[in-house]
Amino acid sequence: MSVVSGTLQSPMQSPPLPGDGGRLPRGGASIVQQGGAESRADLLFALLARGAAIFILIMLGALVLVLTTAAMPSITAFKAHFLASSSWRPNEREVVMRDAKGNIMRDADGEEVTVTLPPEFGALPVIYGTVVSSIIALFVAVPLSIGASLFIVRIGPRIGLLLGPISFLIEFLAAIPSIAYGIWGLFVLAPFLQDHLEPALNAVAGKVFFLRMFHSDQGLTGRDMLCAGLILAVMILPIITSLGRDVLRAVPRVQIEGSLALGATWWQSCQVMLRYGRTGLFGAIMLGLARAAGETMAVAMVIGNANRISSSLFAPAQTMSSLLANEFAEASSNIQRSALVEVALILLVMSLLFNVIARYMIVGRSARPAV
Amino acid sequence: MVKTEHPTAERGHARANREAPQPGTSLPPIQPVLRSLNPDIAPGRNGQNPVHLPTTTPTEQSPQGPAIHAELAAEQHVLSTEDFKLHYGKHRALHGITMQIPAGKVTALIGPSGCGKSTLLRSFNRLNDLIENVRVEGRIRFQGQDIHDRKVDVIRLRKKMGMVFQKSNPFPMSILENVVYALRIGGERRRRVLDEVCEKSLRSAALWDEVKDRLHTSALGMSGGQQQRLCIARAIAAEPEVLLMDEPCSALDPIATGKVEELIYALRGKYTVVIVTHNMQQAARVSDYTAFMYMGRLVEYGPTNSIFVNPHLKETESYVTGRFG
Predict the structure, then answer these.
(1) pLDDT of A272-316, one tens digit each?
(2) Which of A174, A304, B119, B308 has the fewest CB within 10 Å, making it most exposed?
(3) pLDDT digit string (tens) for B227-241?
């Protein structure tokens, strides 16, 4: 149909070059491999590309290997107890022995009997902190992100909004360094929470029976689990929104039209869209979760850094990454350093799992029908 | 370069698919286009006289108007258009279509790609509302009611018009949930009602025996032909009055096409069916009335038999005999 006419000739089919001495038969080149500079270059490039790919794998392997080796003293010392223990005692400590009734035990001279506890480490509070702060972040960020992506895909074009700048701004949020979010959290969000939001919430939690567990008896500082969760929510909003937008945009038009043609309302047709893209959306959420779990600086600035488990959201806490940021530089003993490395290893494995699941959801399953 | 309206549309059937020229936005006079496509076609094959084609430009109304056969006047009409015009932005896709769709009959819309058949079909259930920059003039009446009237609830309108698309579009749910989707969104929850409607619709779509043992498995695991019949069952389950079909067989193989055609044939009387098709034999097989459209106009409209055997206009004859388009 186009205007192209005449016969097409590939360069290979042009008449034999003088150097070939007319070796090629008339009417086309031989299909037998000729060898020569071109195929050598091909081979070289293939090797280079393969090498680059292998190099990246080796880096990952080396990372895991080094972390595991460095964590070995801690792993052998605390074993699985590391995951279940709440103690974080970098230095050995002398404590007074008490008897069954709680009285201080004394020896014959009336001196207090003491024992020396060795350093002990457990990761439970930081795992708890990471999980809870990530859950708060998802709780806030997921409805907002999905709503925003629906707006960009379904409403924006209809009301003639310039979606380019909006999408750009949302993605720009992802590029802001986390320390900037941390400073904002420390100087703006935390004081706001301390003065306005948390006193009211804490009072309500104290009165309502089933919210009692969220009540905090300590003074409110604003630098606590809730603040960290909110900062994380702001940070993972852009990634879930932009991925969710791509997922929803890829929903075939006939799916939406099909539901509308059956008399679906606007929101019902959106439900079909969300359902069609649900694995992709789940993947987007998992990537957001991976970022929330690994986020360090902003969290370390606003979470209050208290290494204990507290059911209240208004009490200071600690996450794995904030623990590492706070303590690694000051780790005094080898066993403390090793324990910190083990925390890092747990974090790495967790993030890796989140990412693998997310990739599988977005890439692996989109090619297959969602069941 | 000629624009194709639906790039994937041509795959399924090679039988009557001889069309090539598709009027785009700015179309050169058709004779030179045809000649450049295939020198054998334009002067008329077998040494016949050159083909006469409508050469009106899209902006002017053809002087004589469409040829509407007298038989149509005797029919009861459920759906009608009055000087209906539709614009995509500045481009006018439909030029004052006036036609009436007889109730309980199968009406086929034929014509080369880009002639506005699908646009007209999608206007009946106002699916074009979704597309930006669409502007309509004139009227479409459904059971006497102007469908563009402010009072009309477009959701209720669409519930009365089932639609089957070119590409099957089962939702990512179980077969049962697909079929009863229209009831679900209408708020129906009674298990017994849903099961009954599902069985009845699947039987109507001649699909029940094939899928009755796996109603709760995903609809996406079905074959292409089954998926399309599922979409028909889904449209029927809503108990519409009109069934709009937009090239329902274009992505199906001949066996699946045959099944769907039998189904359409069986639906006559119960439903008013409007079917857009590229396949002229299909139009001849399944429809009672055929409308030939060209470049956004209705050219000729009458009983299928007369359109194919004894058309009033030369343009129609050229098209249905495959000499152009």
Answers:
(1) 999 999 888 988 998 899 889 888 888 988 888 888 888 888 888
(2) A174
(3) 888 998 999 888 888
Residue B125's closest chain A neighbor by CA? A261
Give the pLDDT confidence of A134-179 residue by residue, as tens digits: 999 999 999 999 999 998 888 877 776 677 788 888 888 888 888 8
Helix, strand, or coil (residue B252): coil
| Interface of chain B toward chain A, CB-CB under 8 angstroms | 1-2, 20, 37, 125, 127, 130, 132, 155-156, 158-159, 161-163, 165-167, 169, 171-173, 181-182, 185-186, 218, 220-221, 231, 234-235, 238, 244
Give me the sign of the Cα torsion angle A129, A131, A134, A139: negative
Among the partner-chain residues B165, B173, B186, the one whose CB lies closest to the CB of A254 is B165
The residue of chain B nearest to residue A160, with distances taken between CA atoms, is: B132
Q: What is the pLDDT of residue A328?
A: 85
Pick from B313, B310, B322: nearest CA to B112: B322
**Out of A2, A252, A255, closest to residue B1 by CB:** A2
Q: Do A263 and B156 touch (CB under 8 A)?
A: yes
Q: Is the pLDDT of residue B21 over 70?
A: no
What does the domain layout of chain A look like in residue ranges? 90-121, 123-364
Between chain A and chain B, the number of residue pairs with CB atoms below 8 A apart is 83
Q: Cβ–Cβ of A263/B172 closer than 8 Å?
A: no
CATH topology of domain A123-364: MetI-like fold (1.10.3720)
**The pLDDT of residue A86 is above 80:** yes
CA distances from B188 to A150, A263, B182, B191, B193 (A): 27, 14, 9, 9, 8
**d(C-alpha A202, C-alpha B304), whole Å:** 77
For the domain B30-170+240-320, what is the CATH code? 3.40.50.300
ipTM attached to this prediction: 0.74
Sequence spans of domains, chain B: 30-170+240-320
Write the DSSP string, A316-361: -B--HHHHHHHHGGG--SHHHHHHHHHHHHHHHHHHHHHHHHHHII
The SS3 assignment for A119 reads: coil
